[in-house]
Each structure stands twice: as C-alpha cells, then as structure tokens.
Amino acid sequence: MAKQGILLVVDDNRNILTSLQYLLGEYFERVITIDSPVTIPTLLNREAVDIVLLDMNFSSGINSGNEGLYWLREIKRLRPQTEVVLFTAYADINLAVTGIKEGAADFVVKPWENARLVQTLQEAYSRIVEARKGKKKAAVAPVASDDGMYWGNSQAIRPLRMLVEKASTTDANILITGENGTGKDMLAREIHRLSNRKEGPMIAVDMGAITESLFESELFGHVKGSFTDAHTDRIGRFEAADGGTLFLDEIANLPYHLQAKLLTAIQKRCFVKVGSNTQQPTNIRLICATNRNLEDMVRNGEFREDLLYRINTIHLHIPALRERKEDILPLAKRFLEQYARQYGRQVQAFSPEAARRLLEHPWYGNIRELQHTVEKAVILSDSDELRGDMLQLTSTASGPEPVAGNAETEVPFHTLDEMERSMVKRAIDQCEGNLSQAAAMLGITRQTLYNKMKRYGL
Q1: N or C, which end of the chain has less CB nearby within 10 Å?
Q2: End-to-end distance of the chain based on CA atoms, in angstroms?
Q3: Where are the alpha helices (DSSP H) in 141-201?
Q4: What residue ranges in 250-337 does DSSP mark as E strands?
Q5: Does residue 42 sit in helix, strand or coil?
C-alpha cells in the first residue's frame, strides 16, 4: 500500500519520537516529530497535517492530562479537519471520554502495541479521506446556509442583538465583555459573518495561551534565521487576518510591557516581522474580548489607557445566562439535539423535573456550563427522555465558593476536580484577578493556571 498522509507526533520523550519516526514512517508519507506543543500553531499554519498523535502530559510532575486536552482543543480550533489521537501512559477511562468528547478520534495507552497504534492512526486517516469525498459530493448539491448564532428571545439580549447588527457592517474596533462561558468567541464570529469582510479570514488568538517570548512571532511573524528555531519564514496572525477579522480573546491577559507593541501595530496599521526591518501594512478589523473590567485594570496600572481607547470604539456586553432565564430551555434543547445526533442517542426531550432543574440552576459557568451539562447527560442517557438526575447538577456548581478557612461553611467535595476548581477560584478571588499572583500562590505556572481556568470555566 502506498504511503499517504502527513502525521504529526507530539511527545516530550525524544526516545519515543525516534521510535515512532521509524515505525510510522513505513505507513505515512511524512512523519513530523516535535517535543513541545508550543510550536503546534506554527506548524499547523505551515503544514497540511492530517493526523496528530498527541501526548497528554508535558510538564514534569503533572499527570492530569489537562495539557493534552488544552492542545486538543487548540488543534481542533485551528484546523478542525485534522484528526487527533491522544497518547498517554495513564489509562484513565474518564480522561478518554473527555478527550473523545472534545473531538479526539481515539485514545492509545503507553506502552503501545505497534499493530494497534498503526491501525488506530490508519483508521483516523481513513475518516479524513471519507470526509473529503463527502465534501466533494456535497459541493454538487445545494447546502443550507449558516444561520449564525442562536440569540434567544429574552429582554436582556435584544439590545445587544440590535447593536451587533448595526456595528457589524462597519470596520470599527469592537470590545466584547462578559463572564466566562457567555459566548464571547461565538459573538465575535457572528460579527465577522455579518460584516463586509465575511469572505475574508477570521483569525482567533487566545492571548492567555501565548508565551511572552513568542508574542511577537505569533502576532507579527518572523523571518528565517531571526532566532534559533526560526528555520523558515513564518507569517503572523496580523498578516494571516489581512482582509478579514482578527479576534484577540482574553486581551486582559496580555502583560503590560507587551501592550505597547500591540498598540503600535493597531495605531499604524502595520507591523515588522521579528528579524526584519521592513514595515508591512495590514488591513484588519479588530475584535477583542475579556471577562475582566479593563477600566479597573487601567486605574490599577495593569492595562494601558491608550490601548483601551483603541480597542473600545464599540463596547458589547453579553449578559450572564442567569439574567436571561427565558433562553435557558431553548438553548438546552438545541444542545440536546446536537449531541443526540453526535453520539447516536435516542433522547429527544427533557423530563419536567429536568426542565425545572435547568431553570432553577444559577449557571455561574453560563452557556459553556449549560452546554457541558447537557452533553454529559446525553452521553449517559438511556431513553428518549432526559431525566433530572442525569444532569448531575451538584451543589458546588450552584452557589458561591465557600470562604477560605471557614470549615463550617465548606461544601463537601465529591471529586478531586471539584476541589481543584474551588482552590483555583479562591486563589484568583484572593488575588483580585491577578493571575501571576494567583499562580504563585498555587505553586503553578501562569500557563498551567490559565489552562485550569479554561477547563473549569473560571
């Protein structure tokens, strides 16, 4: 059989990379190996990778698999058509289910069996081939157009929808604010869909996930030889978004000393690649998002006032889900139908008890929490009606976190995840949103803290 497909292997063990290079090189056209996931976005921009074999743990002493899940989400966001097979030495069925829920094709446990590993990867590539054939067939027949995001009909959301419809057709810079899980990224994509730039690219950048050392390279690109690992020229996000929309998510996580570089690029509408002296113009529409109060950050000296003015031409605030209760059941119904199709379940509706619980729950994690709750319930469902107990709405998710040090008010934790979520939130609250201080308090890196915030919807 002729070798086909481009495979990317990401593992921090160089011996494993060498072994897999020899083994898998017999079956795939190209096998690329890297020992750090940090360069995954760069590589996906440069290479048409078909499959990624992704290790679940990279930081020494941390074996939770959270890093692997984070990079799985990033891969599926950057290149949805790429299949991801997770690779771990820790055979945890819950982790496997979580990975598959997040879009992984399969799960392989170390130490691996060569035949099983090759079969899993080849099956993943076969799905890609079938998907490409399906796209070609679909191109012949008319397809339904994308109707965009679901707005709902609550009184709280109507003013926002009217403002979005007016602002989308302009090129004004937009700042989207709202609690975690309210759908800021979805709103940014809706603005792009409604804009005059909809035929251009929509490039999203998670500012909290970019390390300080790679900031300029990620946003502005670099030229070959500009630093040790710069083996080829690379375009940055500003250049990739030319003619379209650049979405900077979690803009508040950009360190103060780097904000001036972003401001300069926005003001001058041009940038300079790392290692180059040539200014390059860019034609973008800028959308930023954050869950923090940037005006308070300006007063505290954590965010530049001039940068805030530049990104805040139009301010859109998404109300929390608990402020638009009329939309809870319609949203839950949409998620129910979506995941019933995805997981092949027969469930079609919520029982009266389940509907009551959905309406009474405060949803501090907003739409993201609702979505994950319904998805998990659908996976567990065994009939055509989803019962209330399947929602697994625990007391720890339905109220404020207990006060530190007050044992009498502590809510009993049922899982380690619940305990970890409480500790992370408490540290962030005690540090008043300063992520560097919170990370130091918890004894973890800022990047690890950010990954945990993403996981727990904080």
Answers
A1: N
A2: 49
A3: 158-167, 184-194
A4: 270-272, 279-281, 285-290, 314-317
A5: helix
The pLDDT value recorded for residue 426 is 84
In terms of domains, do 331 and 309 share one? no
Least Cα distance to 37 among 15, 18, 65 occurs for 65
What pLDDT score was predicted for residue 399?
Answer: 43
Q: Are residues 364 and 343 in the same domain?
A: yes
| Positions of E strands within 347-451 | 349-350, 385-386
- 382 & 337 share domain: yes
User: What is the DSSP code (8-state) at residue 226?
Assistant: S
Token pair for residue 273?
A: 């690649």
DSSP assignment, residue 274?
Answer: B
Look at the alpha carbons of 222, 226, 228, 230 in this order and tell me if their dihedral is positive or negative: positive
Own/partner pairs for 229-238, CB < 8 Å, 24+ apart?
A: 229/39, 230/274, 230/275, 232/46, 233/273, 234/42, 234/45, 234/46, 235/45, 236/271, 236/273, 237/203, 237/205, 238/265, 238/271, 238/282, 238/284
Q: Which residues contact 292 (CB under 8 A, 6 or more apart)?
A: 252, 433
Residue with the two structure tokens 């006032």: 305
Q: Are 212 and 255 in contact (CB under 8 A)?
A: yes
Query: Between helices 366-380 and 328-343, what is the axis angle to 10°?
Result: 40
Q: At what angle do helices 435-442 and 446-456 cross, to 10 degrees?
A: 100
Task: State which of 393, 426, 442 marks the end of a domain.
Answer: 393
Mean pLDDT of 100-123: 83
Backbone angles phi, psi at 395, to 5 degrees: -65, -30
> 88 - beta bridge partners?
109
Instruction: Say if pTM beats, i.e. exceeds, 0.70.
Output: no
Length of the chain: 458
What is the crossing angle of helices 158-167 and 184-194, to 10°?
A: 40
The pLDDT assigned to 89 comes to 66
Q: What is the 3-state composition of the chain as percent helix, strand, coil, each rounded to the nearest 5?
A: 50, 15, 35
196 shares a domain with 133: no
Share of the chain above pLDDT 90, in %: 30
How far, in Å, are 124, 287, 361, 373, 384 from residue 323 at the CA level? 43, 24, 12, 19, 30
* Domain CATH code at residue 207: 3.40.50.300
CA separation for the pair 283, 133 (Å, rounded): 35
Contact between 55 and 22 (Cβ < 8 Å): no
